Amino acid sequence: MKNMFEKRLSLYEMLTAFSFCMDLIDEKIVGHHNKVAYISMEIGKNLGLSELKLKKLVASALIHDLGIFYVQKFSNTSLDVIVSDEKFNNSLYDLNFFNTFFNLDFEDSRIKNHAEIGYQLFKDKSPVSQIPEIIRYHHHSWNKKNDSETLMLSNILHLADRVAVLIEEDTPILTQRKRIIKIIKQNQDPYFFSEAVEKVINLVSQDFFLFNVNNLAYVKKILNDFFQTPIKLINDKEILKFSKLISHLVDYRSSFTATHSAGVASIAKHLSEYMNYSKKKQKKLEIAGHLHDMGKLVVPPNILNKTGKLTNDEWSIMKSHVYYTYHALSTSEKLKEIREWAAFHHEKLNGTGYPFHLTKDQLSFGSKIIGVADVFTAITEDRPYRKKFKYLKAIEILSKMAKNGELDSKLVNIIVDNFNEFNELREEIQVRNKNYFKEFNNKAKDIINSDSLNYY
Questions:
Q1: Is residue 77 helix, strand or coil?
Q2: Domains and CATH numbers, the chain
């Protein structure tokens, strides 16, 4: 089977889509992953790393904190830890910029635990095997006795992350230079290797570098230019794996919708089989199903899990998720078709949907498939505010929406005529994914509650 994209996607293009949503989870960390990627790149260049090593390092930096989602959920204490000024004065973890997530000291096991969870999440889904390992060790102290390439790249990432965190957004950047250099020097031993610290101090001493770090638009341009020659072109199987990783992180945030994206993906693919779509297009729709709610990474969990009716303000925030899905998948024109299929799933044929109020003539059939798959999956699964609907009620809802010009009647009729088949498929896929979530959640809890993790 030929690749589903006319031009193959690069790993960087998928990573930037994911990084986009991660950086929007909290206003305090907007641009954090891009800044860390840029700082890592500059340190690596000054150390004379090869282009391949540099690209592995920068790619890792773009998603280095993906394990933070599980720390938020399973940590026994809040991540917004309240600490005394005396204990954390002049510490690299006295974070004004990143305090929602990382107001922690160097030896707090939770800071290493989120890196281990990131590794566990990505180790079987990364097209480049070394990237999960780099993420795994990115909060470990420098070990002179084990100075492998991976640990060296991880340590550069660790240092770059600390520099980014030390930069205060509401203070003129050049006035922060002395403080940043002082704290980096104070914490060189045992946390970082001396050559990297030397390069960082040289970089921070230059005005242009500090201005660059604070210019997110320029940082993104530099990174895009750097990856014009991709680290790796990824195939269809790898794209599907990556889309499942994203849907995993989106869905786990709500226990009621923990397998929703997998359900939508399976129903969308099955509908496309009834439409006699090519295998290539079927897989593309499956990927769109996994990615359709990626914008929910921006929606606070208290809204996702609310058992009562959402307020107008809460509903406005909830509706924004499709907008962010659209823009996350706008990082590459090669994702255009998947972007439209995924992000338009709340549009209605009669123009009453959101966020673009498109009509049936403006919606591709792929978008209509994802829309029907989303409604079917949602009404046949439990939600925070209600139990799943049984056969007759589900049929009534789908038929009414088709009659009112909201959903495509041809697609609705396929599901109505084959309801048990579609529902059994949804249940099978969602039970399988629920078991995976349960297994991984148990593993994450063990990691989070571990006092120490020793990997080397």
A1: coil
A2: 11-233 (1.10.3210), 236-444 (1.10.3210.10)
